[in-house]
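Ticket #4471: structure output looks truncated?

Reporter: J.K.
Steps to reproduce: submitted the chain below (111 residues) through the standard prediction queue, then opened the result file.
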Amino acid sequence: MKQKSFEGVAVYPREIPPNKHAVVGVWSRRDITERQLRQIKAHNALIDIGAIGVSTGVKGTAVIYIGPIKNVRTARKIALFLLKLVVVATGARSIVRDLADVTAVRRALVV
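Returned output as attached by the reporter:
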């Protein structure tokens, strides 16, 4: 069986907290350029509530959505949307994973 290689992970929480605000994002090993940053941030205009942020550090790049999320299904949809943004901008292949809670997602996205 051929094993897929990936350079990042899209994560979302299995449980949404009562206040309905959650963090969803994509972590990638690749660094991001200014052009790619502008390309990703341009999608903020499409979002009514919440925002997409990009964080870069020694460990890579994290594209994060912070805002209200109704349920786990919506969180997964947002994670897939962010994953597509990262693939288009950087070309990095990522996989999708659900994590236990919002705290685990925040820790996974620290760069």
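Triage note (M.O.): checked the attachment and the full token line is present. Residues 72-90 form the longest helix (19 residues).
Status: closed, working as intended.
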